[in-house]
Every structure is written in structure tokens, then in C-alpha cells.
Amino acid sequence: MPAVPSEHAARGPERDLVVGIGARPGVPAEELTGLVRAVLAEAGLPLAAVRALATVDARAREPGLRAAAALLGVELLAYPPAVLATVPVPHPSGAVLAATGTPSVAEAAALAAAGPGGTLAVPKRKSADGGPARATCAVARRAAPHDSSTQPTVRTQRTVRTHPTVRTHEETP
User: Fold this and answer.
1) Which of 19, 44, 104, 112 is buried deepest, with most CB atoms within 10 A?
2) Nearest residue to 77 via CA among 156, 172, 16, 153
3) Do 135 and 21 form a contact (C-beta atoms < 8 A)?
4) Residues 20-79: tens digit of each pLDDT
5) pTM, whole model, 2 decimals?
6) What is the rounded CA–CA span in Å between residue 36 and residue 31?
7) Do 79 and 85 form a contact (C-beta atoms < 8 A)?
8) Residues sharing a CB contact under 8 Å with residue 58, sequence separation 6 or more, in sequence order
9) Pairing relation of β-strands 17-23 and 157-163?
């Protein structure tokens, strides 16, 4: 009698990765998806394990970022700069702080979306082709799988739906 594959094997890899994205306005989806795919491939991580893209809320309405999430088949999560600024990251940037109000977008958003106990699997990588970076991404791994639609990603946050595929997180009073 042939072995019956386990439910986990039939579903594929656990969706325990979150990709944080920092992007300048107007960055096209193709550049973002190319960066995400390249970073994951370089790290030996499967695209199928990605459950969401995460960014700062000021970029959540960017057409390229929304399209990238749709092309990758994942949810887009957004956080206010005040929330991202509280997340310790290995590569803070004064330029990012001046532009966005937080010293990190890609690493901080990935870690915030990964939730308590999440770890940085891939530090910030840039999309530059010899010029200034138009986008960055970082990958975080969730500590334990759970349904993000029923639990707040950041303990002091409440989820506000702004679009079927975009969730923003705001501080609770």
C-alpha cells in the first residue's frame, strides 16, 4: 500500500516568512518582485513560504507595491512610522529616518509583521543597479505559525482594513 503524504507535505512549505519592503514612490511592481525573488533565491528560501509583504503605511497605496503583493499572491501589511521606529534593527539609516520618520522600513516592517519572537532571516538588501537604491527588502521568519487575521501582529496594535489585500496597524489609545 503506497504511503499517504501528510497534510503538511501536501500543502507545501509552511508560510512563515514575511518580506519587508522599503521603496521610493513610483517603483514598478516588476522591480519589487524581481528584488524579492532574487533575495529569496540567494538565501535559499522558497517563495511559497512568504505569507505577506510589509511596509510603512505611507507606501501602502503605491501602485507598484500593491501590484507586487498581488503578483506574488500575498497580503500587504502596513505600519505607521512610530511603530516601526520601536523595532530594533541591525541596519538603521539616518536617511530613511529623515525621509519616513523611522530609521528602518524593510527590516523593521519584516520584524513587526513576523510578530513576537520573529527573527531576521535576511538583512536589508538593495535593488540598485549601480545607482541609488529605489527599493530595499528584508526577510523575517515568524516564531510560530498562527492566523494573522485573528491576532494582532504587533501586541499594541489594532488592525484596520483599508483594502482587501492591505492591512494597516495603528496604535491603540
Assistant:
1) 19
2) 153
3) yes
4) 999 999 999 999 999 999 999 999 999 999 999 999 999 999 999 999 999 999 999 999
5) 0.76
6) 9
7) no
8) 81, 100
9) unpaired
